[in-house]
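If you are new to this repository, start here. Below is one unmodified record pulled from the training split, so you can see the exact layout before writing a loader.
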Amino acid sequence: MRLVMIGSGYVGLVSGACFADFGHDVVCVDKLAEKIDSLKRGEIPIFEPGLDAIVESNIKAGRLSFSTDLTEAVAEADVVFIAVGTPSRRGDGHADLSYVFAAAREIAEAVQGFTVVVTKSTVPVGTGDEVERIIREVNPSADVTVVSNPEFLREGAAIHDFKRPDRIVVGLDDDRARDVMTEVYRPLYLNQSPLVFTTRRTSELIKYAANAFLAMKITFINEIADLSERVGANVQDVSRGIGLDGRIGSKFLHAGPGYGGSCFPKDTLALAKTAQDHDAPMRLIETTISINDNRKRAMGRKVISAAGGDVRGKKIAVLGLTFKPNTDDMRDSPAIAIVQTLNDAGARVVGYDPEGMENARESIDNLECASGPYEAADDADALVIVTEWNQFRALDLPRLKSIMKSPIFVDLRNIYRKDEVEKHGFEYSSVGRPL
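And here is the target side for that same chain:
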């Protein structure tokens, strides 16, 4: 089939490349000519393991192309995906849908013949209705049907998630689209990936509900971690003990400095705002947002406490700056608030991240950047692990001890054992384990 992906950012590029890998002919469209030119040269603007190889192979096979010409691409398409950004709107926290609606207008002007228009972007309930209204208003004769098909991609594991999904959710109000979307996902459907058809509004809500639930799960275990420290329990054992219950499950029960990234912060906020607008406030989600925001600063204070209660003039080494491993994404990363808290307390913060240094320079004020973990730790008064990159899981502890000014090790991801670190002469602090 002939597919067009409007938006060549994270979701659009990953989805477009994977669809091409399934054998579809895909054109990824973006307004930024510089980005399109880079993609044509095989240069990937984001870090996502395995994406570069898929893009390169499908460009060579002629199934994947890039363009700034939306009109030509849409005119020849069977299915047009809208995969543009929906950031939190300044001032009120609602999702900013201006890019989605602009894409709908351009699609309406260019579409020819029966076409399925699919909203891939994360959007509030009712957005599909407005996209359809815009298309009808701009081009009353357009033969289109609008579908909701939310993405469920984890940064750092997006290729796996796309090709081996837990489920594929498709929301539609026109049965003509069912056959088209079944054909689009046929390679996955034949492998028995659940294809869940529902109404368009239900599909839109499924995406927000899923992310909000996972955000609550993270926030729940983080509060259990705080209690564990005070009562002498071990949150990792608690997580295992409750996670083995099939009704609960073990995923997203790892205590840490709070959630960040491109989805959970903005999606929980957008869901809370939508609920308020419809007179059905979601107190659990509102509280989750508040707890998570406060937690990031609290982790900064935890570091200060571990360093003796005063970090003025001290050098603090921070390892891991992105919101999670295997991405270069700094959006709402806990590291931003942690570093800011340390800066406000007068510390000198030196950070290192395997992939996020360029974005970290733009996101964090007064951050000195190191070329590696040991360079960051050299002469440091404390070392903090904020993001659990694999290369931080086997640090040379004797080497660290020899180069640090003070042997203070703060592990905000619990990737080390207390006895393992302390036997090398460190003072060790973690999250949710006995003080």
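Two things worth knowing about this chain: The CA atoms of residues 116 and 177 lie 6 Å apart. DSSP finds 18 helices and 14 strands in the chain.
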